Amino acid sequence: MTSTAEALERRIRSYGERAVVAFSGGVDSSLVLALAARALAPSAVTAVTAVSPSYPAGELELAAGVAAGLGVEHRTVRTHEVEREAYARNDEMRCYHCKAELYATLGAIASGAGDGVAVLAGANADDLDDWRPGLWAGERAGIRNPLLEERVGKTQVRQIARALGLGVADKPALACLSSRVSVGIRITSELLARVDAAEAIVRARGFEVVRVRHRGDLATIEVDRENLERLRAHPELGRALGEIERLGWRRVEVDPDGYRQGGVAV
């Protein structure tokens, strides 16, 4: 166990005797969940996954597997951010409105569980380098982010996750589907489902890190840069582009710059 992991456990214990963890199933929230279970005992921790049209298909099953492996209770809640006008209009504050709804829901769960229940989330120190209005929502709601508070970035997150034997230690970054839609284009459930289906088409060709950005009539495909040439030379690229076009875009192109962490469609 590293000294950083021990410091994270001490910080989690300082919050209280029980915890509700905002749990997407990505490596950050999985590490927070694992450390909370170690610091407080699995029976004192509840993982809560918010399910909505912005949550990629297939992720819930993976998240449930992680929670089961840690022996913690796993609950799902349905959130309705896509139905909120402040979110659907998709301006620079979209993430704030999403997190505000999520944290209100988690806060109600924590309050219903009694006194001394902290709500934890998985923001890490690297998130301070990006535009993250969702962090403001967390601050207003009293959410604790142990990774951020201990200044633990993504590289350390993955190192600690490996040391703890978490199967998601090397899982690609998980971002909500709305991050694929250009700012100012209205978010709808149907559009998010289309983006999700498009990404599944590319993943089926053997690419794990995929983002399909919606730019109106144009969709652009991003894969990690080390696989960019493999995608361009893939024998089924033309077929994949055609399948994605038939989902509702007039043009589909491969982004020549590849996937950028924290990128958004503009």
Question: How would you describe the overall organization of this protein?
Answer:
This protein has 266 residues and is an alpha/beta fold. It folds into two domains: 3-163, Rossmann fold; 177-254. Helices cover 43% and strands 14% of the residues. The chain has a four-stranded parallel sheet, with helices on both faces. A three-stranded mixed sheet has the order 5-6-7. The longest helix has 19 residues, at 94-112. The chain is globular, with a radius of gyration of 19 Å. The relative contact order is 0.14. The mean pLDDT is 94.
| Inertia-based shape | globular
- The total domain count is 2
* Main structural class: alpha/beta
- From the structure provided, what is the oligomeric state, counting identical versus distinct chains? single chain
Annotated CATH topology of the largest domain: Rossmann fold
Global mean pLDDT: 94
Count of DSSP strands: 7
For the record, the CATH architecture of the largest domain stands as: 3-Layer(aba) Sandwich
Strand content: 5-15%
CATH class of the largest domain: Alpha Beta
Characterize the largest beta sheet: strand count, sense, and whether it forms a barrel.
4 strands, parallel
Distance between the termini: 42 Å
Describe the protein's topology.
Blueprint: H1 3-15, E1 18-22, H2 27-40, E2 45-51, H3 59-70, E3 73-78, H4 85-88, H5 94-112, E4 117-120, H6 133-141, H7 146-149, H8 154-163, H9 189-203, E5 210-215, E6 218-223, H10 228-232, H11 237-245, E7 251-254
Parallel strand pairs: 1-2, 1-4, 2-3, 6-7
Antiparallel strand pairs: 5-6
Helix pairs in contact: 1-2, 2-3, 2-8, 5-6
